[in-house]
Design brief:
The protein is mostly helical. It has three helices and no strands. It has two domains: 71 residues; 41 residues, no CATH class. 0% of the residues are buried.
């Protein structure tokens, strides 16, 4: 491969755009040089201004999004505080007798009543009340 050819990745694009030029700028010596430097400065300022506007709008959208996320978390909590206590009170009134007692819920339930509600009778069982009490005690442990 000849020495004069350069690899495409190694080539630097040559542009005439003064904003994107990477060449060092010599100190100004005339009014034309000062004029060109001022024009470059104005172009850079415009580029920076447009970037800052974009960044500002993105930050505004981020703040709005964070407020929306906060509302999505807080609103259900507020509704729960307002509406759940009456609902829980109604449920507690309906099923509270199951949960009343001094120990676990099992100790407050009469086994004979449960069997009668299930359609069976206590006389058909071959289990003595003492055996049932032992089973309940073993469950409570």
């Amino acid at each position: 491969m000849p020495q004069s050819e350069e690899h495409p990745k190694e080539k630097k694009e040559q542009t005439n755009d003064p904003v994107h030029s990477d060449m060092p700028v010599p100190p100004p010596t005339s009014t034309d040089d000062l004029k060109s430097l001022i024009e470059k400065n104005i172009k850079w300022s415009q580029v920076i201004y447009t970037q800052n506007r974009r960044i500002g709008s993105r930050l505004t959208l981020m703040v709005i999004g964070s407020y929306i996320r906060l509302l999505l978390i807080v609103i259900p909590i507020v509704f729960a505080v307002i509406y759940l206590p009456p609902l829980v009170k109604d449920v507690w009134n309906q099923y509270g007798n199951l949960f009343q007692g001094t120990g676990s819920p099992i100790s407050s339930i009469n086994v004979n009543d449960v069997l009668k509600q299930l359609g069976g009778s206590t006389t058909n069982l071959n289990i003595s009340p003492d055996q049932l009490q032992q089973v309940i005690k073993s469950i409570q442990k």
